[in-house]
Amino acid sequence: MIYSIFKPYIFSLDPEVAHDLAIKSLKLNVLPKSIFNVEEEELLETNLFNEKLPNPIGLAAGFDKSAEVYNSLFKLGYGFVEVGTVTPKRQLGNPKPRIFRLEKDQALINRLGFNNHGSEIVSKRIAENLPIGFLGINVGPNKDTKNKEQDYYLCLSKLSSQANYITINISSPNTEGLRDFHEQAELEKLLTGLNKIKKEKNISKPLALKLSPDLNSDEISNTIELLNKYKIAGIIISNTTDSNREKLFDTKKDEIGGLSGKPLKNLSTKLIKKFYRETKGKVQIIGVGGVDSGRSAFEKICSGADAIQLYTGMVYKGPGVVKEIKKELISILKKENIKNISEAVGINA
Questions:
Q1: Is 242 within a domain?
Q2: 172 is catalytic
Q3: Which range marks the domain in which residue 47 is found?
Q4: Is residue 349 part of a domain?
Q5: With bands split at pLDDT 50, 70 and 90, how would you rate the model's confidence at 1?
Q6: Interior angle at CA 101, CA 96 and CA 105, nearest 5
Q7: DSSP string, 139-153
Q8: HSE of 6 in the Cβ direction (CA atoms, 13 Å)?
Q9: How far apart are CA 319 and CA 310, in angstroms?
């Protein structure tokens, strides 16, 4: 595709400059949806949080941080898009440089730190430009907040009416103390508060919890117990990892931040299998980490993911990656004699 022609130029730019250029290009909204259509996409129709999606391929949070281009992204063929992470107040994030391409490893390391325009602007933006597809909003606390739980409650209250689901991000390695919410007592306190807000404000939108790939066995068991207790609709497995660097080749491998892309693939797939088996399929799973082809998407789905998300895969393969994944998935389904993608969920778990 055309992207392969432009890729050397794009990769000669600083990653954050290239990202800003991508956002600006998508704002022009010039690409017709038809060029990203595939035949027999009905084989990929699926359900997520009781809503029908045209396909299970989503864009992960982190690309459209401030909800500026979600409708252009739907036109690329995504079945759903997740924006954010959105914090109550606008924040600039960590000092630059803060995104690094590890080309030899088909990976990225980022330490962005929730840079976004804040819940007020994001809420207004979505209200004025209604989503043409299934939209998730990923929320988190401001860096300098005194009370992280309160920030989640504020975002849930402010943004739930604009979203099809809200993701509670407790797993970015770039906000100090955020992963403390994986501890049982902290997570229970947070989920109690979120359910209280939902009840008080009559919010019916489903909640998803975005988890770290670096969980230990105890944390997994405790999380599953609380997911059931507080009736959390879904989990996103997984966020970036701040470990897993031993086998990397790129010289930038020791940069501080969260690692995403190919090196995360097996780590997240193993975790998907574990959660699928232990929740017995009762909690929906969105699988993330190293998805850049139909085969890697199918692997996550067979391991127990109801849907998948990508981000780094689009950085390396361009906007046409969704179309390619869909075509390859359809071809795999036909070869395996599977009538619909949802029938493949968990078959290898």
A1: yes
A2: yes
A3: 3-344
A4: no
A5: low
A6: 150
A7: E---TT-S-HHHHHH
A8: 13
A9: 11
Classify each residue of 227-266 as buried b or exposed e, where b means 16 or more C-beta atoms within 10 Å of its C-beta. Answer: beebebbbbbbbbbbbebbeebebebbebebbbbbbbbbe
DSSP state at residue 45: -
- The CATH number of whichever domain residue 173 belongs to comes to 3.20.20.70
pTM of the model: 0.97
Parallel/antiparallel/unpaired status of strands 80-86 and 107-110: unpaired
Structure tokens at 68: 């500026």
Give the CA angle between residues 195, 199, 202 to the nearest 5°. Answer: 130
Choice among 172, 212, 260, 268 that is catalytic: 172
Say if residue 216 is exposed, middle or buried (CB neighbours under 10 Å; 0-12, 13-18, 19+). exposed
**Residues whose CB falls within 8 Å of the CB of residue 234, separated by 6 or more in sequence, listed in order:** 48, 49, 165, 206, 207, 208, 209, 283, 284, 285, 286, 306
Does any domain span residue 39?
yes
Q: Is residue 161 part of a domain?
A: yes
More confidently predicted of 217 and 237:
237
Q: Which of 64, 68, 47 is nearest to 56 (CA)?
A: 47
Collapse the DSSP code of 286 into the 3-class scheme (helix H, G, I; strand E, B; otherwise coil) and give the result: strand
Residue 229 has pLDDT above 80, yes or no: yes
pLDDT tens for 157-175 read: 999 999 999 999 999 998 8
pLDDT tens for each residue of 3-57? 778 899 899 999 999 999 999 999 998 878 888 999 999 999 999 999 999 999 9
Q: Which two tokens stand for residue 261?
A: 């892309």
Task: State how far the Cα of 266 lies from the Cα of 291, in Å rounded to an integer.
Answer: 10
Domain count, the chain: 1
What's the token pair of residue 325?
A: 């994944």
Strands (E), the chain: 46-48, 51-53, 57-59, 80-86, 99-102, 107-110, 134-139, 165-169, 207-211, 234-237, 258-261, 284-288, 307-310
Q: Do residues 324 and 332 touch, judged by C-beta distance below 8 A?
A: no
Sign (positive/negative) of CA torsion 215, 221, 222, 225? Answer: positive
Question: CA 29 to CA 34: how far, in whole Å?
Answer: 13
